[in-house]
Amino acid sequence: xxxxxxxxxxxxxxxxxxxxxxxxxxxxxxxxxxxxxxxxxxxxxxxxxxxxxxxxxxxxxxxxxxxxxxxxxxxxxxxxxxxxxxxxxxxxxxxxxxxxxxxxxxxxxxxxxxxxxxxxxxxxxxxxxxxxxxxxxxxxxxxxxxxxxxxxxxxxxxxxxxxxxxxxxxxxxxxxxxxxxxxxxxxxxxxxxxxxxxxxxxxxxxxxxxxxxxxxxxxxxxxxxxxxxxxxxxxxxxxxxxxxxxxxxxxxxxxxxxx
Length: 259
Hints:
flat, CATH 2.40.50.140, alpha+beta, 7 helices, Alpha-Beta Plaits, 4-stranded antiparallel sheet
């Protein structure tokens, strides 16, 4: 990984670590993003009593930790493994994955252009890092048409080659929202009433799909490139369900929970 940050991380920052040494009461790690090292005390590895640290970590393993304290004079960094929740761990690993993907793109471009890999990386990041903290953030803005590489300072020919490589590799990832709709009615024309409600829901968007589960239950799947339009479509569905409700009929939607 070429990516490096200057200085030290901030307190409470979530950082990637690589285990280098394991002692009876502590774990020592390298911080690849900072070219620095830190320590995780046994009490910060996992809640409860720990008999053997090697049951939780191993040499060479990558872990995600939270910065607890920093002694800037000595350069000591105290970290916690147990205070990182599932969302923080997933987000950090996704950030690293995206940055490695961006670096891989530059390495492949270097081979195509027959240029030294590190030299091309520095040439590109020297300009990109003036505006962005990470390469992948810039690359996604390029996909969205929100940034011009030439305006960032890259020469025209390199900007054109890089832009095409980015558009080829960085495809917009679709988000998915799933849930379950329940329809109940004792109305004399109940079957027709349910049929009309389902038809209205299906007409909300082409990015919305209904699956019959049985006994008045339907699985709703919404897929889009952004949460904004996906949530708007869900609101429209909930409005249709609200219209379905009366003295003889009930409708509900329960959204699936994500980790």
